[in-house]
User: Which sequence fits this backbone?
Protein backbone atom coordinates (compact mmCIF):
# COMPACT_ATOMS: atom_id res chain seq x y z
CA UNK A 1 0.00 0.00 0.00
CA UNK A 2 1.09 3.60 -0.53
CA UNK A 3 2.61 5.11 2.60
CA UNK A 4 -0.39 7.34 3.25
CA UNK A 5 -3.03 4.67 2.53
CA UNK A 6 -2.90 2.78 5.85
CA UNK A 7 -3.35 5.95 7.91
CA UNK A 8 -6.19 7.13 5.65
CA UNK A 9 -7.86 3.71 5.86
CA UNK A 10 -7.64 3.65 9.65
CA UNK A 11 -8.95 7.21 9.86
CA UNK A 12 -11.86 6.16 7.65
CA UNK A 13 -12.44 3.08 9.83
CA UNK A 14 -12.49 5.18 13.00
CA UNK A 15 -14.88 7.69 11.42
CA UNK A 16 -17.22 4.95 10.19
CA UNK A 17 -17.11 3.30 13.61
CA UNK A 18 -18.11 6.47 15.47
CA UNK A 19 -20.74 7.25 12.80
CA UNK A 20 -22.27 3.81 13.24
CA UNK A 21 -22.40 4.18 17.00
CA UNK A 22 -24.04 7.62 16.81
CA UNK A 23 -26.51 6.44 14.16
CA UNK A 24 -27.24 3.25 16.08
CA UNK A 25 -28.03 5.16 19.27
CA UNK A 26 -30.34 7.49 17.33
CA UNK A 27 -32.04 4.48 15.69
CA UNK A 28 -32.92 3.17 19.14
CA UNK A 29 -35.12 6.24 19.65
CA UNK A 30 -36.62 6.81 16.20
CA UNK A 31 -36.93 4.78 12.99
CA UNK A 32 -33.61 4.28 11.17
CA UNK A 33 -34.98 5.87 8.00
CA UNK A 34 -35.73 9.07 9.89
CA UNK A 35 -32.10 9.20 11.00
CA UNK A 36 -30.59 8.80 7.54
CA UNK A 37 -33.25 11.14 6.14
CA UNK A 38 -31.19 13.83 7.90
CA UNK A 39 -27.65 12.45 7.83
CA UNK A 40 -27.58 11.63 4.09
CA UNK A 41 -28.55 15.11 2.75
CA UNK A 42 -26.19 16.74 5.27
CA UNK A 43 -23.38 14.59 3.99
CA UNK A 44 -24.35 15.38 0.39
CA UNK A 45 -24.13 19.13 0.97
CA UNK A 46 -20.77 18.89 2.73
CA UNK A 47 -19.30 16.57 0.10
CA UNK A 48 -20.60 18.83 -2.67
CA UNK A 49 -18.68 21.75 -1.20
CA UNK A 50 -15.52 19.70 -0.82
CA UNK A 51 -15.80 18.33 -4.36
CA UNK A 52 -16.11 21.84 -5.79
CA UNK A 53 -13.02 22.95 -3.88
CA UNK A 54 -10.93 19.89 -4.79
CA UNK A 55 -11.84 19.99 -8.49
CA UNK A 56 -11.13 16.95 -10.66
CA UNK A 57 -12.87 15.46 -13.68
CA UNK A 58 -16.52 14.43 -13.81
CA UNK A 59 -16.19 11.14 -15.70
CA UNK A 60 -18.83 8.65 -16.78
CA UNK A 61 -17.58 6.19 -14.17
CA UNK A 62 -17.82 8.86 -11.49
CA UNK A 63 -21.49 9.37 -12.33
CA UNK A 64 -22.55 5.75 -12.92
CA UNK A 65 -20.51 3.91 -10.31
CA UNK A 66 -20.87 6.77 -7.86
CA UNK A 67 -24.66 6.62 -8.12
CA UNK A 68 -24.73 2.81 -7.90
CA UNK A 69 -22.46 2.93 -4.88
CA UNK A 70 -24.68 5.54 -3.26
CA UNK A 71 -27.82 3.45 -3.76
CA UNK A 72 -26.07 0.36 -2.37
CA UNK A 73 -24.70 2.29 0.59
CA UNK A 74 -28.06 3.91 1.37
CA UNK A 75 -29.77 0.52 1.51
CA UNK A 76 -26.89 -0.88 3.54
CA UNK A 77 -26.98 1.95 6.07
CA UNK A 78 -30.76 1.71 6.40
CA UNK A 79 -30.59 -2.02 7.19
CA UNK A 80 -27.49 -1.54 9.33
CA UNK A 81 -28.99 1.21 11.50
CA UNK A 82 -32.17 -0.88 11.78
CA UNK A 83 -30.08 -3.81 13.05
CA UNK A 84 -28.14 -1.55 15.42
CA UNK A 85 -31.40 -0.13 16.75
CA UNK A 86 -32.89 -3.55 17.47
CA UNK A 87 -29.85 -5.66 18.35
CA UNK A 88 -26.67 -5.42 20.45
CA UNK A 89 -24.28 -2.92 18.86
CA UNK A 90 -21.21 -4.89 19.93
CA UNK A 91 -22.43 -7.87 17.86
CA UNK A 92 -24.17 -6.28 14.88
CA UNK A 93 -21.34 -3.93 13.91
CA UNK A 94 -18.54 -6.54 13.72
CA UNK A 95 -20.65 -9.14 11.90
CA UNK A 96 -21.70 -6.60 9.28
CA UNK A 97 -18.05 -5.61 8.90
CA UNK A 98 -17.05 -9.22 8.23
CA UNK A 99 -19.49 -9.47 5.31
CA UNK A 100 -18.62 -5.92 4.28
CA UNK A 101 -14.92 -6.86 4.00
CA UNK A 102 -15.52 -10.22 2.30
CA UNK A 103 -17.31 -8.69 -0.71
CA UNK A 104 -14.51 -6.35 -1.95
CA UNK A 105 -11.83 -8.90 -1.05
CA UNK A 106 -13.59 -11.42 -3.28
CA UNK A 107 -13.97 -8.92 -6.11
CA UNK A 108 -10.34 -7.91 -5.74
CA UNK A 109 -9.05 -11.45 -6.07
CA UNK A 110 -11.39 -12.19 -9.00
CA UNK A 111 -10.10 -9.08 -10.80
CA UNK A 112 -6.50 -10.24 -10.46
CA UNK A 113 -5.29 -8.52 -7.31
CA UNK A 114 -2.52 -10.51 -5.65
CA UNK A 115 -1.32 -8.97 -2.38
CA UNK A 116 2.02 -10.11 -0.96
CA UNK A 117 2.05 -13.21 1.26
CA UNK A 118 2.44 -11.04 4.36
CA UNK A 119 -0.47 -8.79 3.35
CA UNK A 120 -2.62 -11.82 2.49
CA UNK A 121 -1.92 -13.28 5.91
CA UNK A 122 -2.86 -9.89 7.36
CA UNK A 123 -6.20 -10.01 5.52
CA UNK A 124 -6.98 -13.46 6.95
CA UNK A 125 -5.93 -12.29 10.40
CA UNK A 126 -8.14 -9.20 10.08
CA UNK A 127 -11.15 -11.34 9.15
CA UNK A 128 -10.43 -13.60 12.12
CA UNK A 129 -10.22 -10.52 14.33
CA UNK A 130 -13.61 -9.30 13.14
CA UNK A 131 -15.14 -12.72 13.89
CA UNK A 132 -13.72 -12.65 17.42
CA UNK A 133 -14.83 -9.08 18.01
CA UNK A 134 -18.31 -10.13 16.86
CA UNK A 135 -18.63 -12.80 19.53
CA UNK A 136 -21.63 -11.85 21.64
CA UNK A 137 -20.60 -10.63 25.05
CA UNK A 138 -21.95 -12.44 28.08
CA UNK A 139 -25.35 -11.02 28.87
CA UNK A 140 -25.50 -8.93 25.67
CA UNK A 141 -28.58 -10.78 24.48
CA UNK A 142 -30.42 -10.71 27.78
CA UNK A 143 -31.71 -7.17 27.47
CA UNK A 144 -34.24 -5.61 25.11
CA UNK A 145 -31.71 -5.51 22.23
CA UNK A 146 -31.43 -9.15 21.18
CA UNK A 147 -29.63 -10.74 18.24
CA UNK A 148 -32.78 -12.21 16.67
CA UNK A 149 -33.04 -13.87 13.23
CA UNK A 150 -34.45 -10.62 11.83
CA UNK A 151 -31.49 -8.66 13.19
CA UNK A 152 -29.14 -11.30 11.75
CA UNK A 153 -30.59 -10.99 8.25
CA UNK A 154 -30.54 -7.20 8.43
CA UNK A 155 -26.90 -7.35 9.52
CA UNK A 156 -25.80 -9.72 6.75
CA UNK A 157 -27.76 -7.82 4.09
CA UNK A 158 -26.32 -4.51 5.19
CA UNK A 159 -22.78 -5.89 5.09
CA UNK A 160 -23.26 -7.15 1.54
CA UNK A 161 -24.73 -3.85 0.36
CA UNK A 162 -21.99 -1.80 2.02
CA UNK A 163 -19.36 -4.09 0.53
CA UNK A 164 -20.74 -3.45 -2.95
CA UNK A 165 -20.25 0.27 -2.30
CA UNK A 166 -16.50 -0.35 -1.93
CA UNK A 167 -16.45 -2.16 -5.28
CA UNK A 168 -18.38 0.62 -7.04
CA UNK A 169 -16.18 3.42 -5.69
CA UNK A 170 -13.06 1.43 -6.62
CA UNK A 171 -14.23 1.51 -10.25
CA UNK A 172 -13.97 5.31 -10.34
CA UNK A 173 -10.81 7.10 -11.46
CA UNK A 174 -8.28 8.93 -9.32
CA UNK A 175 -8.72 12.10 -11.41
CA UNK A 176 -12.41 12.21 -10.51
CA UNK A 177 -11.39 12.95 -6.90
CA UNK A 178 -14.51 13.48 -4.76
CA UNK A 179 -17.11 13.75 -7.54
CA UNK A 180 -18.13 10.05 -7.27
CA UNK A 181 -19.07 10.71 -3.65
CA UNK A 182 -21.30 13.62 -4.62
CA UNK A 183 -23.21 11.50 -7.14
CA UNK A 184 -23.35 8.71 -4.57
CA UNK A 185 -24.86 10.97 -1.96
CA UNK A 186 -27.28 12.56 -4.46
CA UNK A 187 -28.60 9.14 -5.52
CA UNK A 188 -28.74 8.00 -1.90
CA UNK A 189 -30.68 11.11 -0.87
CA UNK A 190 -33.31 10.53 -3.56
CA UNK A 191 -33.66 6.87 -2.57
CA UNK A 192 -33.91 7.65 1.14
CA UNK A 193 -36.62 10.28 0.56
CA UNK A 194 -38.61 7.83 -1.58
CA UNK A 195 -38.26 5.01 0.98
CA UNK A 196 -39.09 7.31 3.89
CA UNK A 197 -42.19 8.58 2.12
CA UNK A 198 -43.33 5.09 1.11
CA UNK A 199 -42.94 3.76 4.65
CA UNK A 200 -44.42 6.85 6.31
CA UNK A 201 -41.14 7.83 7.94
CA UNK A 202 -40.77 11.18 6.18
CA UNK A 203 -41.10 13.19 9.40
CA UNK A 204 -37.62 14.36 10.46
CA UNK A 205 -36.63 13.55 14.02
CA UNK A 206 -36.39 16.25 16.66
CA UNK A 207 -34.48 16.86 19.85
CA UNK A 208 -31.61 14.53 20.71
CA UNK A 209 -32.13 12.11 17.76
CA UNK A 210 -31.97 15.08 15.38
CA UNK A 211 -28.68 16.24 16.88
CA UNK A 212 -27.29 12.73 16.61
CA UNK A 213 -28.39 12.50 12.97
CA UNK A 214 -26.64 15.79 12.18
CA UNK A 215 -23.45 14.58 13.86
CA UNK A 216 -23.69 11.31 11.92
CA UNK A 217 -23.92 13.28 8.66
CA UNK A 218 -20.75 15.22 9.45
CA UNK A 219 -18.84 12.11 10.55
CA UNK A 220 -20.09 10.21 7.49
CA UNK A 221 -18.59 12.90 5.27
CA UNK A 222 -15.12 12.46 6.74
CA UNK A 223 -15.41 8.67 6.65
CA UNK A 224 -16.36 8.60 2.96
CA UNK A 225 -13.77 11.15 1.85
CA UNK A 226 -10.96 9.16 3.46
CA UNK A 227 -12.48 5.96 2.03
CA UNK A 228 -12.28 7.31 -1.53
CA UNK A 229 -8.70 8.48 -1.02
CA UNK A 230 -7.81 5.04 0.34
CA UNK A 231 -9.40 3.06 -2.48
CA UNK A 232 -7.84 5.34 -5.12
CA UNK A 233 -4.34 4.76 -3.73
CA UNK A 234 -4.36 1.07 -2.69
CA UNK A 235 -5.54 -2.37 -3.74
CA UNK A 236 -9.26 -2.90 -3.20
CA UNK A 237 -8.65 -6.03 -1.12
CA UNK A 238 -6.19 -4.26 1.20
CA UNK A 239 -7.83 -0.87 1.59
CA UNK A 240 -11.30 -2.27 2.15
CA UNK A 241 -10.23 -4.75 4.84
CA UNK A 242 -8.49 -2.00 6.83
CA UNK A 243 -11.57 0.22 6.61
CA UNK A 244 -13.70 -2.75 7.67
CA UNK A 245 -11.97 -2.77 11.04
CA UNK A 246 -14.37 0.03 12.03
CA UNK A 247 -16.22 -2.17 14.57
CA UNK A 248 -13.32 -1.67 16.97
CA UNK A 249 -14.38 1.96 17.48
CA UNK A 250 -18.08 1.05 17.62
CA UNK A 251 -17.57 -1.73 20.16
CA UNK A 252 -15.36 0.42 22.40
CA UNK A 253 -18.00 3.14 22.43
CA UNK A 254 -20.77 0.58 23.09
CA UNK A 255 -18.79 -0.75 26.06
CA UNK A 256 -17.86 2.65 27.48
CA UNK A 257 -21.08 4.58 26.83
CA UNK A 258 -23.81 1.92 26.81
CA UNK A 259 -22.11 -0.40 29.31
CA UNK A 260 -22.43 -3.38 26.97
CA UNK A 261 -20.36 -6.18 28.49
CA UNK A 262 -17.22 -7.28 26.65
CA UNK A 263 -16.17 -10.91 26.17
CA UNK A 264 -12.49 -11.82 26.55
CA UNK A 265 -12.43 -13.06 22.97
CA UNK A 266 -13.43 -9.59 21.82
CA UNK A 267 -10.27 -8.28 23.50
CA UNK A 268 -8.24 -10.94 21.67
CA UNK A 269 -9.91 -9.81 18.45
CA UNK A 270 -8.82 -6.23 19.08
CA UNK A 271 -5.21 -7.37 19.53
CA UNK A 272 -5.34 -9.46 16.35
CA UNK A 273 -6.80 -6.49 14.48
CA UNK A 274 -3.79 -4.39 15.47
CA UNK A 275 -1.45 -7.15 14.30
CA UNK A 276 -3.36 -7.44 11.02
CA UNK A 277 -2.98 -3.71 10.38
CA UNK A 278 0.77 -4.00 10.89
CA UNK A 279 1.02 -6.96 8.50
CA UNK A 280 -1.09 -5.33 5.78
CA UNK A 281 0.90 -2.12 6.08
CA UNK A 282 4.22 -3.98 5.92
CA UNK A 283 3.06 -6.03 2.97
Assistant:
Amino acid sequence: MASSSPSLALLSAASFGVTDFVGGVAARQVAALRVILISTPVSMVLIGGLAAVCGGSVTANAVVYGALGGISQAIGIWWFFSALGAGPISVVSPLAALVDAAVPIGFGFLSGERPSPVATAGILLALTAVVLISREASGAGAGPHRFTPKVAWLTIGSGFALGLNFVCIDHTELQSRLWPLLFARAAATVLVVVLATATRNAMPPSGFPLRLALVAGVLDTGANVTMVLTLHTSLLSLGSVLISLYPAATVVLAIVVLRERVHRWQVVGMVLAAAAVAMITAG
